[in-house]
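pasting for ref. prot 1 ->
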Amino acid sequence: MYLLQRRSAVIVLATLALVPVQAATVSPQTAEVFSQKIALIRGQGDSGVSGRTRLTEDEMNSWFLYRGERWQELVPRGVAQPKVTIVGEGQVAAAAVVDLDAVAKRRSSGGSLDPLSLIGGTVPVSVLGVLHTGGGRARFEVQSAQISGIPVPVTVLQELVGYYSRTPERPEGLRLDQTFALPSGIRQVEIGRGQVVVVQ
């Protein structure tokens, strides 16, 4: 269960916003709606009930903002201020503020061409990609990534995801190009503009 939560957090991290969330679109009430829908999805998964549950971009970002303690249970310290933009047609954009110091120390070769040897501290990281789902499986295809607004290779993003998704069972962390099982009996996720529909 913990590994599924951590995997879900990585996918969320790998799908968080390039575009700032408008203050008027998020609220504690909307965060509560998102929590109730997640509970519904889990309940349907436990009971084997089929269903379609709509989750909106505003609900997700409200949950990140007003239920921050739940987010911190899913990811290690060093990842903060997650935001998501659901672009549509399978495409999602994501952003978070990430502490690069620990990752840079682990990865850095000391060479001047190593991007993480030149960057440190807490910086914004953004990602754009396509989430492919079907048959209870999913894969995230990264199209672009930026650190502090500077384009970086996918290998650098992979280093961040690998570091922050490490567990005792998986010491190297998760791979971005890895196909994984969707939790709670989810068969697929339909991604439209500003919303997703979870199909169980």
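and prot 2 ->
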Amino acid sequence: MSLHELTANTIDGKPQPLSAWKGKVVLVVNTASQCGYTPQYDGLEKLYEEYKDKGLVVAGFPSNDFGAQEPGTEAEIKTFCSTKFNVKFPMFAKVKTKGDGQSPVYRFLSTEHGVPQWNFHKYLVGKDGKVKKAFKSGVAPESKELRAAIDAALAE
């Protein structure tokens, strides 16, 4: 199984085959608009802008699983992300990251690397569609640890 075998709905409700990302490194993040980690949107956008031409995709999956910190609709989330943080990386429809109704994307991501424990948990997926590493919420987008892992994945 690989991430490339899955499809997820974009924040606009359109199916997006993740096979479009074959040969790219993907950073999948469960996001929330009312979380203490919400300012990470800024760092994620900077990371995306810096690395997108090198082959990195940042993919945001809003989730209301932790502290009910993403209560909005997809339209509200999209407006929030674009107006507050100028987010241009791909955003998807709200998903369940754990438990009953867990999205297929998160079922795949968490199989070997565990379910997220909070918002802004990050999974780094290699060019082959396999999860390379997971990062807890407190690992900021600008952290040396995350950037080193991205650089290594891009070099493969």
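Helices lie at 40-51, 74-85, 104-113, 144-155.
DSSP finds four helices and six strands in the chain.
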